[in-house]
Amino acid sequence: MLKVRKSQERGYADHGWLRSFHSFSFAGYYDPAHMGWGNLRVINEDRVAAGAGFGTHGHKDMEIISYVLSGELAHKDSMGNVESIPPGDVQRMSAGRGVMHSEFNHKPDQTTHFLQIWIEPNVRGIAPSYEQKSFTEADKRGRLRLVASPDGADGSVRVHADARLYAGLLDGQEQAELALDPARKSYVHLVKGELEVNGTRLATGDAALIEGESQLKLADGKSAEVLVFDLAA
Asked: Three-state secondary structure along the chain?
């Protein structure tokens, strides 16, 4: 089964300093048909205006991944981490038993465009932790590069969740395949461009919700950047 969620079907909020598309119910956007997919709970596509950001706030028992598309995201947290996250970096924060943090766009003339991803953990009450790694365009070109996993395989960031996240860049004749467990769920989020997912065409911001399938095939991309989630059902 493959179900397409079109970009324009997502929730949307415009706060002036922040414009955000919500793939799943979040804050003021509530849709009982889209509360998450497997243990994937949030994908927010955020655009933060120059000189603006999220003030200090708390999280608990959630695996949070930031994937920056353009601009830079400044991060500061109660664990003592003060970092800048550029495009190509994947940041993972395990909120565990509680963490406070802020995220900010310090650039005076540039919007920060990033994906905020929440995955439900498979262990609760752990000490909060932070990890950040860089993945080049070459790492993702014409393939699905593992960027987050439960065991940190292949240099990916480690999430305390039964989930794996892959990132890929596909254009023209480039193709990528991934074996799927039909008992699990998969989620394909097309960050930009166009792409064929198991024969179904997606455009920027579209997603494919997949279950009961044994293979994923990505083909016929047009400047496509894609994220693929392998998830607990």
From this structure: CEEEECHHHCEEEECCCEEEEECCCECCECCCCCCCECCEEEEEEEEECCCCEEEEEEECCCEEEEEEEECCEEEEECCCCEEEECCCEEEEEECCCCEEEEEECCCCCCCEEEEEEEECCCCCCCCCEEEEEECCHHHHECCEEEEEECCCHHHCEECCCCEEEEEEEEEECCCEEEECCCCCEEEEEEEEEEEEECCEEEECCCEEEEECCCEEEEEEEEEEEEEEEEECC
| 144-149 vs 157-158, strand pairing mode | parallel
Q: Which residue reads 């509530």 in tokens?
A: 30
For tokens 């998830």, the residue is 231
| Cα R_g (the chain), whole angstroms | 17
Position 26: which residue type?
Answer: F
Residue labelled with tokens 């003030």: 55
pLDDT tens across the length of the chain (233 residues): 999 999 999 999 999 999 999 999 999 999 999 999 999 999 999 999 999 999 999 999 999 999 999 999 999 999 999 999 999 999 999 999 999 999 999 999 999 999 999 999 999 999 999 999 999 999 999 999 999 999 999 999 999 999 999 999 999 999 999 999 999 999 999 999 999 999 999 999 999 999 999 999 999 999 999 999 999 99
Contact 49, 113 (CB under 8 A): no
